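Task: complex structure prediction.
Instruction: return structure tokens for all chains below.
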Amino acid sequence: MSTETSNNDSDPLDELLKSWKVEASLPPRFQEQVWRRIACAEEEPAWPVSAWLLRLAALGANLLRKPVGAAAYVSVLLAIGILAGVWRSDHYANQTEAAWRTAYLQAVTPTPSLESQP
Amino acid sequence: MKRPWLIAVLGLVFAACGFGVFYGSRTSSYRQLQAQCGPELAWIKKEFQLNSADFERVRKLHESYKPVCAEMCRQVDEQNRELARLLQTAHEVTPEIDQVLSRAAQLRKQCQTEMLKHFFQVSQAMPPEQGRRYLAWMQAQTLTPIHDSMVPKMGAKSDDDRDTHR
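Output:
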């Protein structure tokens, strides 16, 4: 009963809301953009890289908290560093020897300069 | 909470140190040798495992040969320039071109003679086995039919050398 009464009564706010008209115009393709945003938000990420990275970081942190894990990690990195050093030094040695050999041959062989060659 | 990060950084530091120590120690002899002998003679010393006395003899021979070689290079350049000048206007082999080619051939012979003399002298300044290896290698590099010009096969190693070396 009371609801009927309230419906029949004319609320000034209702009147005011009814009379309110929005005059501002929406930006172009507003609706389409809204739907696209909703679609993006609902879409599942194809490859949740960040989730995997977080999981990996957590796993790594757990590993490093254990003495055995920490020792293994440091040992592996040390071995990688040593192997890289050996590999790069071999490369340096080969390059250097080739450069020396070329320099020696150029020094003892009368080689015409490139500018003078017909 | 800080400990995993500390260990992670420590691992990287260890890796960098391992790299630095091994790279530095394995390449220092090359840098030292180059600083001592220069790039040309560093190769001779290392490749033919010369001791100080042998190396000193080779160094003296090398130093005395360098001006001779430079003079021959100058003459070869001169001949090439002259030939290029003549070829710019010629439509056939003129007597002048013929003359320049004859002089170039004579010069090539002289260059090869001087070069071979030097190779023999250097090979004799080394221990016999190394001297033979040096001579074979230098001849293969400079007097092969493909490289009848005086331009050597830069940086190449002969197959014989690969077999005998090390």
